Amino acid sequence: MTDPRRTRLIGPAMLGVASGSVLVPLNSTMLAVALPSIMEEFAIDAATVSALVTLYLGTVTIALLASGSLGDRYGHRSVFLVGVIAFALSSLLAAGAPSYAVLTIGRVCQALSGALISTTSIALVRAIAPPDRRGAAFGLFDMLVSISAALGPFIGGLLVGAFGWRSLFVIAAPVALFAALAVGLVVPRDTGAAVPDHGEPAKPVRRRSAIDVPGLILLAVIMVAVLVAIRGLSGGGPGWLAALAVVPLFVLFVRVELAADRPAVDPRLFRSRPFTAAVLGVLGTTVVLHASFILVPLLIERLQGGTAETAGLVLLGLSAVWGVAAPFGGRLSDRFGRRQPVVAGSVCLTAGLVALWLFAVGSTPAAVFVMLGIVGFGMGFAGSPRQAAAMDAIPGDRVGMAAGTYYTGRYLGGVLGASLAGAVLGATVTGAGITLGFGLLVFVGLAVVAVSFGLPDRSPGRTVPAA
To answer: pLDDT averaged over the chain?
Structure first.
């Protein structure tokens, strides 16, 4: 069978991996336009319905750390296939949920299986692409995933309007089936095993050491403390206690991970300045993304009198432009280094947030679409160079753990963003709450710009002399 590292970047293997990977963000983007409908059916408020997003993303965040190590040990292809099949079954459970409690269980099961997909998809893309084209490969992958996810709000709006919110979960089953068939039939069994940066793929890792359960439990406790702090600071009591507990819990977590043989998150990874900058950057970016996916539909549907279809079209301004911009940033980073496109994209992202802060509430859906387009362009242009920089900084035999850690930053940002939006809005959707939400996101954007300067100004593929 043909070595996937010598094939074209786009082909059945890449399409299969991208189809599986899109299941995870697609079930966030589509659900955004369905939140008002779910609120009405189960008689819950905005803060409660946002838990469907935070619970999903929070579970993914914890599970990612275990899934990365599982891929390193058992093979990323095998773990990917388990993930897409489990995601299909979880989606069908959510589609038939008779209550909000059962719906949340379905979302948790989706998150667990989605974590298996997320880390293994990055490892498979890394294995498919040669090092000197890795930026382009991640750009292409980001484009395929982003464009598919971009259609989520639009398709979701149409499905909610025609068939109700349950149809959003049903549609995941055929996508998962295609991903399983494409990867299972086209990608060789040893693809995604521990792969050095140069040379032939290594043999699959056979170690079966235990998952770092203490580390995962501590991380879960830290996340709960952060969420309680975000939701409760304005009311005092548990919010302040949770906030005070975060720092000592984090210190304990670092000590436990340093002492573990196979830590869920190896703090030593963060000795690499580029890896640290990339993780902090993706965390901040997804704070913006998932906060926007709650703020915008509620703005359009509750304050501007729009429909779910309108909200879906407006969100295309973010996701679709992201997908279009993604391959350009990746290709430029292969030529000029990772830092420049990431900094430029982050500045663009922040400019769009400033516009939303100042003008979103008093504007039309069309104007919100344009402002979100600016944000989306910045996210897309910076996304694949940032991801490539993170993977460049890590040895091939630790790519699973690194991918899990990187995606942990990504989904932790989503948890924080959705929680922030829910906390700002509370039980009532108001113009002041929407404005405050976007104002806080401006400061997040500025922080993303600052950390982006920690990325390398050269790409590794250009530093190796020609043979």
So the answer is: 78
What average pLDDT does range 400-412 have in this prediction?
75
pLDDT digits (tens, 9 = 90+) for 328-341: 887 788 777 888 88
Options 1.10.287.130, 1.20.1250.20, 3.30.530.20, 1.10.540.10; which CATH number does 4-189+264-458 get?
1.20.1250.20
> Which carries the bigger pLDDT value, residue 49 or residue 459?
49
Query: Which residues, 6+ apart, have CB-to-CB distance to 259 below 8 Å?
Result: none
Q: Say if residue 194's pLDDT is above 50.
A: no
Q: Give the start-to-end residue ranges of the domains of the chain.
A: 4-189+264-458
| The predicted structure's pLDDT at residue 179 | 85
Encode the chain in three state secondary structure.
CCCHHHCCCCCHHHHHHHHHHHHHHHHHHHHHHHHHHHHHHHCCCHHHHCHHHHHHHHHHHHHHHHHHHHHHHHCHHHHHHHHHHHHHHHHHHHHCCCCHHHHHHHHHHHHHHHHHHHHHHHHHHHHHCCHHHHHHHHHHHHHHHHHHHHHHHHHHHHHHHHHCCCHHHHCHHHHHHHHHHHHHHHCCCCCCCCCCCCCCCCCCCCCCCCCCHHHHHHHHHHHHHHHHHHHHHHHCCHHHHHHHHHHHHHHHHHHHHHHCCCCCCCHHHHHCHHHHHHHHHHHHHHHHHHHHHHHHHHHHHHHCCCCHHHHHHHHHHHHHHHHHHHHHHHHHHHHHCCHHHHHHHHHHHHHHHHHHHHHCCCCCHHHHHHHHHHHHHHHHHHHHHHHHHHHHCCCHHHHHHHHHHHHHHHHHHHHHHHHHHHHHHCCCCCHHHHHHHHHHHHHHHHHHHHHHCCCCCCCHHHCCCCC
pTM: 0.68
Neighbours of 80 (CB within 10 A): 31
For residue 286, pLDDT beyond 80: yes
Closest CA to 245 of 260, 229, 232: 229
> Taking the CA of residue 284 as centre, how many other CA atoms within 13 Å lie in the half-sphere pointing to its CB?
29
| Encoded amino acid at 104, one letter | T
Q: What does the longest C-alpha to C-alpha distance in the chain come to? A: 66
